[in-house]
Automatic annotation (TrEMBL):
Cell division listed as a keyword: no
Entry-linked Gene3D superfamilies: ATP-grasp fold, B domain (3.30.470.20)
Keywords: ATP-binding, Ligase, Nucleotide-binding
Encoding gene per record: Ttll11
Alphabetical GO biological process terms: microtubule cytoskeleton organization
Pfam families linked to this entry: TTL
Lineage per the UniProt record: Eukaryota, Metazoa, Chordata, Craniata, Vertebrata
Molecular function as annotated in GO: ATP binding; tubulin binding; tubulin-glutamic acid ligase activity
Gene Ontology CC terms: ciliary basal body
Protein name as annotated: TTL11 polyglutamylase
Origin species: Pachycephala philippinensis
Amino acid sequence: FPLGRRLPCDIYWHGVSFHDSNIFSGQVNKFPGMMETVRKITLSRAMRTMQDLFPVDYNFYPRSWILPEELSLFVDEFHRMKDSDPSWKPTFIVKPDGGCQGDGIYLIKDPSDVRLTGSIQSRPAVVQEYICKPLLVDKLKFDIRLYVLLKSLEPLEIYIAKDGLSRFCTEPYQEPTLKNLHQVFMHLTNYSLNIHSGNFIHSDSVNTGSKRTFSSILCRLSSKGADVKKLWSDIISLVIKTIIALTPELKVYYQSDIPAGKPGPTCFQILGFDILLMKSLKPMLLEVNANPSMRIEHERELSPGVFEHVPSPVDKEVKVAVIRDTLRLVDPQKKKRKDTHCIVTVPPKQQWLGAHKHPGLWEVSPWQRVDEMSSEVPPKPTLSVILCCRCQSLLQVPEASKELPEAPKSPEAALPSLCLKQVFPKYAQQFGHLRLVDRVAALFIRFLGVKGTTKLGPTGFRTFIRNCKLSNSNFSMAAVDILYIDITRRWNSMSIEKESGMCLQAFVEAFFCLARKRYKTLPLHEQVLSLIEACEGRLGTLHGKRLVCGCG
Ligand code: ADP
């Protein structure tokens, strides 16, 4: 909109990030702060916090250290592990923060090989354990790009695309040795790198070549007897757990950009999950991409420097379905259509309603406009199945009533079935206990005070301690101030952001520190849970008292 947008839209489709502060309604395809939240360092920090709390649940993310600040920690841990097992011969991968497409990535065998000269100070990085035994197909290493729709943050709603892409290396894989460490076509699966190898195969088929559908790999694995059902369920759990790790930070950004109670849009976002399968078929998370490429063509070099765009059937197969179904799921018209459903009273003589326990409340399709509570004219069911609004059960309409005139087709009817599968809240029960940092973030946001900030000032921190009654003779308010200053100063020295104050991760660290102090003997996640419950309880009581005083 070079001249500015005149009318409000139902859906705003931004190219890179959430950046438009003039949107007051509708839906935006980006969450505020998503780009920052999935950067390599921020993701590693969020995963580390979850690994500290739930080491077994979060063992799908390789052990990582942040450079330069954790270089000495990395060196110490390396030597400790080497001392305890001299046969351990690890490889590490160093990835610059904010890099993409394999840019600046290199492999090392020893911490002394980290390239500290100049750039590392200005360009922080993550050093990570290298997965040496990936699953190979046709002797080649490959990774999986899966598309995930974060449809809503509050309440959390996650969908996963049933198919994804498998991106192949172009040189046969060998476990890393000093001789082959630098061979990017053997170790890095990035499309943007391998496309430059003479061995890259563009294929018109989805199950051959250097880029294939993930479903074609699954078919192949299944034909060899692999348990692909278990693999899918491990992938689903990896995706849900990763998003649970990201939501606290996202919520802080959200309340800052779209304050509660003021008109604003809602957000959704398509994310690209990069996953590596180990030989054992265990999926490992490599990274999350906030702006996954949605291109359905590739470039072919006709002569040096002259390119043409050629359709890519594999990309088309996977990506068109993702975009189409995202639009179907967030479709504002669908919501309007749903709102026109009417609730009718069905007379008892309708035999087919028979023994259902809630006679009276039925949702019927929008073309059957039946006056609410009309008991004179029974609705003519044109569906073979109807939905009870109260208990959400689907009831079959018996044969006799199917003779009724055919209903007009809904626009959805012409489309293929959804490729996006809901996984949250569907599996919420299994993962609810992991959402501890979310609750810590809710406390943080509560004390942020002035809307529009992402950092807690010293007064906000003191109020949190006072309202939650966390200070006592062993932990004076002076000690509270020292804790605030110590942790905040350290976090701010690592950040390039100008806004002063305590960021969420610093607050989480302070919270864990308080939890350890109070509940010494418990495992960390129980210490944190106990403190959360104590804080929530006290704030609840305080809120209750305020309400009573207000009424009085
Ligand atoms: P980028 O954003 O630059 O693509 P990635 O984290 O995706 O960075 O890493 C690039 C490639 O390096 C991946 O596609 C994968 O092939 C390889 N890779 C990354 N991390 C690991 C790891 N821990 N173990 C094995 N291979 C890895």
